[in-house]
């Protein structure tokens, strides 16, 4: 069940640098209520979100550019130059173009060597999946420094009419990045990652088009007025119910695999999907407020970027210290979910 514990690896990996970037443009709940039928009280009560950041036309941002901004901060903090990076892993559900992916755009923006650039499409679990991939490449000794980036430009693709209010008030733009390096200290680092998926729920949180199943001419012919397949769909309550179960399960799975318990957690950073989900997990695990980091109030759900943004902010605030057990956990579209346990 837990293969990572049965294998002896030559190396272990650790996060040596964290960084994030969010656009300057703040969009409050009141701002949204001017363009759709919603209100601050509903959004705060159901999600905890007070405001989010949206790229503003002309501010020079897109998914890869925000990713590059976050990556530069993470590289600097890691003391690693772009030339020292052996691999890029880029997680997003909102790439600048259908193909090629954000990884190669980042490679160009950071003027990196011709290192491999891998794109990960696991939505809200994208960062944890990417971290796991980076961890495997380091553990086997193949690479020494892997740059992992999560970046999202949600505002470019949401339905800001009242029809889309159940989804569009939740999501925000931003990017986070980490440098995963070979752990030279011999202690700590990434202890384990556990990943899961359950495709039978793929229709509960999805964006159909553009895709080969919903290509532009077909869509326009079928549905000239309502470009529904081009906007995300979410069955909110269904997602909520599964999220609270899977978050708890996958954290527990990680703890058991490392023979640890919830009392050992120094900092839990859940994917920022909904403050109510985070609070539910916190209560279930009986964790005090200071051991759970949330910033959804300021940024909404930034999908693949949410955990690295939160990690970077928690680190900046001095809430993560050497030796701490940091637990990351994510759940999202697919459904996919995962956890990572890190001895900082
Ligand atoms: C999306 C979510 C906040 C909605 O909250 P909810 O309590 O389930 O609300 P519902 O969808 O049942 O909607 C309740 C009512 O509010 C209305 N509503 C939906 N969005 C609204 C908005 N932005 N403003 C005002 N009213 C809204 C609905 O139309 C519905 O009205 P009705 O009762 O007249 O039909 C919540 O389900 C959720 O967070 N789910 C998980 C989402 C998630 O984690 N997604 C990402 C996974 S990574």
Q: Point out poorly predicted stretches.
A: none
Strand content: 15-25%
Shape: globular
CATH architecture of the largest domain: 3-Layer(aba) Sandwich
Structurally, the number of domains stands at 2
- Secondary structural class: alpha/beta
Small molecules (ligands, ions, cofactors) in the structure:
coenzyme A
Radius of gyration: 19 Å
Q: In angstroms, what separates the terminal alpha carbons?
A: 25 Å
The helix content is 25-40%
Number of distinct beta strands: 13
Q: What summary fits the major beta sheet?
A: 5 strands, mixed
What would you give as the CATH superfamily of the largest domain?
Thiolase/Chalcone synthase
Chain-averaged pLDDT: 94
Characterization of the model:
The chain has 344 residues and is an alpha/beta fold. It has 2 domains: 3-182, Thiolase/Chalcone synthase (Peroxisomal Thiolase, Chain A, domain 1), CATH 3.40.47; 189-293 and 301-343, Peroxisomal Thiolase, Chain A, domain 1, CATH 3.40.47.10. It contains 12 helices and 13 strands. The chain has helices spanning 3-6, 29-33, 40-47, 63-78, 102-109, 126-139, 165-168, 216-222, 236-257, 275-284, 296-299, 306-316, and strands at residues 13-21, 26-28, 51-53, 87-91, 117-120, 145-152, 174-182, 189-197, 205-206, 233-234, 267-270, 325-332, 336-343. The strands form 4 sheets. It has a 5-stranded mixed beta sheet, sandwiched between helices. Strands 8-13-12-11 form a 4-stranded mixed beta sheet, sandwiched between helices. Helix 4 (63-78) crosses helix 5 and helix 9 packs parallel to helix 10 (275-284). The chain is globular and about 60 Å long. The two termini are 25 Å apart. The structure holds coenzyme A.
């Amino acid at each position: 069940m837990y293969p990572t514990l049965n294998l002896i690896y030559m190396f272990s990996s650790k996060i040596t640098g964290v960084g994030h970037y969010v656009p300057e443009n703040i969009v409050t709940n009141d701002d949204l209520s001017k363009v759709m039928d919603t209100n601050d009280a509903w959004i705060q009560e159901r999600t905890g979100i007070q405001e989010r950041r949206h790229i503003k036309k002309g501010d020079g941002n897109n998914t890869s550019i925000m990713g590059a901004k976050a990556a530069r901060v993470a590289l600097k903090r890691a003391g690693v130059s772009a030339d020292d990076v052996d691999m890029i892993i880029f997680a997003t559900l909102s790439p600048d173009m259908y193909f090629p992916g954000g990884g190669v755009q980042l490679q160009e923006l950071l003027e990196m060597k011709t290192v491999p650039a891998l794109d990960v499409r696991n939505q809200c679990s994208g960062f944890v999946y990417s971290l796991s991939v980076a961890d495997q490449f380091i553990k086997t000794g193949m690479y020494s420094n892997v740059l992992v980036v999560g970046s999202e430009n949600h505002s470019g693709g949401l339905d800001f009419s009242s029809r889309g209010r159940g989804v569009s008030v939740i999501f925000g733009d931003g990017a986070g990045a980490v440098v995963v390096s070979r752990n030279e200290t011999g202690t700590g680092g990434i202890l384990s990652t556990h990943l899961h998926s359950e495709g039978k729920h793929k229709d509960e949180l999805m964006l159909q088009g553009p895709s080969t199943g919903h290509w532009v001419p077909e869509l326009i012919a079928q549905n000239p007025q309502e470009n529904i397949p081009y906007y995300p769909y979410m069955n909110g309550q269904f997602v909520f119910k599964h999220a609270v179960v899977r978050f708890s399960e996958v954290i527990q799975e990680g703890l058991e695999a490392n023979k640890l318990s919830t009392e050992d957690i120094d900092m839990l950073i859940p994917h920022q999907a909904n403050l109510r989900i985070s609070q539910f997990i916190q209560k279930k695990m009986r964790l005090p407020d200071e051991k759970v980091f949330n910033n959804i109030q300021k940024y909404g759900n930034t999908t693949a970027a949410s955990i690295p943004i939160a990690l970077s902010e928690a680190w900046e605030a001095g809430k993560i210290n050497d030796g701490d057990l940091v637990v990351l956990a994510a759940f999202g579209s697919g459904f996919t979910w995962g956890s990572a346990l890190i001895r900082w």
